[in-house]
Amino acid sequence: MAMRGVTVLFFQVLILCFQAKAWNPVRRSYEVKQEATTLGNVHLITECMHVTSEEGEFSFIKLPPTRSTSSWKGTGGGRGLGESWSGLIEMESDTMLAGDGSGGEPLVANGGGGGGGGPAATVCGVYFVADPDQIIEITMKQVNVECRTGGLMAFVDGWELNGQYFPGEQDHEQRLERRVQEFCSEQAPPQWSTKAVTPAKVWVFRSSQNCALVQYRIPVRGSFVISARFLHNSKPCHIMAEGLAPYYMLRNYGQPKNCTLTALFPAVVSVIALEVGPVDKNVHYCERVRSDDKLEVGGSTGLDPHQMIKASTICGRSGGRMDLDQSILCGTTSVRLVSSGQYNNQAMITIRMAEEADLRLAAVMCAM
Ligand SMILES: *[C@@H]1O[C@H](CO)[C@@H](O)[C@H](O)[C@H]1NC(C)=O
């Protein structure tokens, strides 16, 4: 239930993108909105899905309604916090709160009956996106979000929507459990909980790529203040494309890893230059050839590039400039550079928002 709210917002953002025909104006409208709600240097978070490409302080506050209808009686069990968000949400909406099977004490909310899963339990998020060669550092300056009343916060190394993640679960160097750090006032994130909890609760998180997410669920009351800083990343692998850069580079730096470039809009992807695999091979399609080093272009409805419908798979070396345009008419457009570690692979890519004229040339179309 709760996540559905985010879905609707996600599509609203997509529709906004369409209307604006470019991400740039969309970003500006966010900035304008933020200016309007800025107190000194602090951005006030007023929307459930708050997308920003700005550094600075962000604060959220929720006061209890005048007539409290909450019947939450949560008991924040230690390891139960390790539950994934979706797990928690299912638990809430089911209100059948038996053991969760994960072995830990579940975050139990009982006695509520029909109350669970209502608007009060909505999961919201502050979605940060920086330049491709930056990572995001988030400092939790204040956390007044109590597990006791069903509240929870999480730092996500990447973005999450409807249970899908960018970078994809299979593509990220860290396992998902390590990428999602849950916490609340009474409970430090796992990486801090072994040591003495910092008295002032100053927790600092860093993302591995240019996007990060701070999720929060505050059913009754609570507040938080976070501070975001963008730091330089000398070897970017996964990139959330904002559509502002003239081109994007995907590189593996000789490593056995997969790097992805994702844009949250239907796009025309153009591969400008390619160096993937053995030196003596020209650029060719390699869907059918068994090849450990390749560039995949495609699209999907969700966030995870690993689950995309492929438009093409190409290998080889272009020498000079080439133009291989492909229209990907999906909510999410992705390019994946798959590398065995045997070669220094790289690809230069441009992405622009698809326009009406590009519809005819669609290489991939998703239900939207
Ligand atoms: C990269 O992706 C390929 C194919 O999608 C997969 O077989 C491989 O295990 C991945 N490698 C890494 C290091 O994640």
From TrEMBL:
<dbReference type="InterPro" id="IPR056178">
    <property type="entry name" value="CRF-BP_C"/>
</dbReference>
<feature type="signal peptide">
    <location>
        <begin position="1"/>
        <end position="22"/>
    </location>
</feature>
<keyword id="KW-1015">Disulfide bond</keyword>
<dbReference type="Pfam" id="PF23541">
    <property type="entry name" value="CRF-BP_C"/>
</dbReference>
<keyword id="KW-0964">Secreted</keyword>
<keyword id="KW-0325">Glycoprotein</keyword>
<dbReference type="InterPro" id="IPR008435">
    <property type="entry name" value="CRF-bd"/>
</dbReference>
<dbReference type="GO" id="GO:0005615">
    <property type="term" value="C:extracellular space"/>
</dbReference>
<dbReference type="GO" id="GO:0009755">
    <property type="term" value="P:hormone-mediated signaling pathway"/>
</dbReference>
<keyword id="KW-0732">Signal</keyword>
<feature type="domain" description="Corticotropin-releasing factor binding protein N-terminal">
    <location>
        <begin position="123"/>
        <end position="223"/>
    </location>
</feature>
<dbReference type="GO" id="GO:0051460">
    <property type="term" value="P:negative regulation of corticotropin secretion"/>
</dbReference>
<dbReference type="GO" id="GO:0051424">
    <property type="term" value="F:corticotropin-releasing hormone binding"/>
</dbReference>
<dbReference type="Pfam" id="PF05428">
    <property type="entry name" value="CRF-BP_N"/>
</dbReference>
<protein>
    <recommendedName>
        <fullName>Corticotropin-releasing factor-binding protein</fullName>
    </recommendedName>
</protein>
<feature type="domain" description="Corticotropin-releasing factor binding protein C-terminal">
    <location>
        <begin position="255"/>
        <end position="359"/>
    </location>
</feature>
<dbReference type="InterPro" id="IPR056177">
    <property type="entry name" value="CRF-BP_N"/>
</dbReference>
